[in-house]
Design brief:
With 178 residues, this protein is mainly alpha-helical. Helix content is 52%, strand content 3%.
């Protein structure tokens, strides 16, 4: 498939945590399959929505295409400062739909001084969430900092699940912007 691709910089940063192939049986994305279950952070379930065959055939181009259309484009990440867009994209792609937007909504609620006008934390990038961000745009560094806190809390909550124990270190490394 040709078309729009995830920006190269975002893809390189994604690959810092999601490179290579994985066939870890404790990964819930692997249930019901044999062989390679994830490549470049693309699960076999996600891959088969776009391409036929096993995910082991996924190329870097395929991964950039899928990531762009599943997450980046849908969430209009080009409209956001890069520090926020990558954090939301990464959490959506790694944690699942709505996780990054929920974290962003909580982060913005922490800065919202208009009591009684808090965002509903629903994981939807609707007009109210966009308006709130527009109002906080000049404070985007604070929003990004709060977003990192929310991401850290999310990853910390995952510690209770035995199936994610193997992935905790790579998930928390994502918080380092270095």
């Amino acid at each position: 498939m040709n078309g729009e691709l995830l920006p190269e910089g975002a893809f390189k940063r994604w690959l810092n945590h999601e490179g290579g192939e994985s066939s870890d049986r404790t990964d819930t994305a692997s249930r019901g399959t044999t062989g390679v279950h994830t490549k470049y952070g693309i699960t076999w379930r996600l891959y088969k929505r776009y391409y036929e065959g096993p995910v082991s055939k996924c190329t870097r181009h395929d991964a950039r295409y899928i990531l762009y259309h599943e997450f980046w484009k849908r969430l209009r990440m080009d409209d956001w400062p890069k520090e926020i867009s990558f954090s939301v994209f990464d959490m959506e792609g790694n944690g699942g739909p709505g996780k990054g937007i929920k974290a962003l909504q909580r982060a913005m609620n922490d800065l919202n001084r208009d009591d009684g006008n808090e965002l509903t934390v629903d994981g939807q990038l609707g007009p109210k969430t966009r308006r709130c961000f527009s109002g906080l745009r000049r404070y985007w560094r604070s929003v990004a900092g709060n977003l990192d806190v929310e991401r850290g809390l999310y990853y910390r909550r995952l510690r209770q699940y035995k199936t994610v124990k193997a992935f905790r270190l790579s998930w928390t490394r994502r918080l380092n912007r270095g």
